Amino acid sequence: MVFTDPPYNVPTDGHVSGLGRTQHREFVMASGEMPPAASQSFLQRMLCNHVAACLDGALLYVCMDWRHLLKLRCTK
Fold first, then answer.
1. pLDDT for residue 70
2. Does pLDDT of 8 surpass 60?
3. What's the pTM value of the predicted model, to 2 decimals?
4. What was the pLDDT predicted at 60?
5. Model confidence at 61, in pLDDT bands (50, 70, 90)?
6. Which long-range contacts (C-beta less than 8 Å, at least 24 apart) are formed by 55-59?
7. 3-state secondary structure of 22
8. In which band, very low, low, confident or very high, does the pLDDT at 49 lie, cut at 50, 70 and 90?
9. For 60, which DSSP code?
10. Which of 1, 15, 49, 50 is most buried by a 10 A CB count?
């Protein structure tokens, strides 16, 4: 079984809030530092590496916004 929560590549500002009471600073793995193509390539490589290490019947739980589902395809 794999459980992973890969980086979303989105900026903290505008996506993470404490209703104004808490101010979160940007941090590297959530700051949207990768161009979209690089982020997609990273996610696909990550998932393919997980799949390659799994035995038949393994379960992979990947935390990701549903709008990015197609970025998580392993094409191997």
1. 79
2. yes
3. 0.67
4. 92
5. very high
6. 58/1, 58/2, 59/1, 59/2
7. coil
8. very high
9. E
10. 50
Other beta carbons less than 10 A from residue 9's beta carbon: 20
**Residue 13: predicted pLDDT:** 67
- Can you tell me the distance from the alpha carbon of 31 to that of 37, in angstroms, rounded to the nearest whole number? 15
**Token digits for 59?**
């379960």
Of 6, 11, 12, nearest in space to 60 by CA: 6
Cβ atoms of residues 1 and 61 within 8 Å: yes
| Helix H or strand E segment including 62 | strand 60-62
Q: What is the dihedral of CA 26, 27, 29, 35, to 10 degrees?
A: 40
Q: Residue 16 gets which letter from DSSP?
A: S
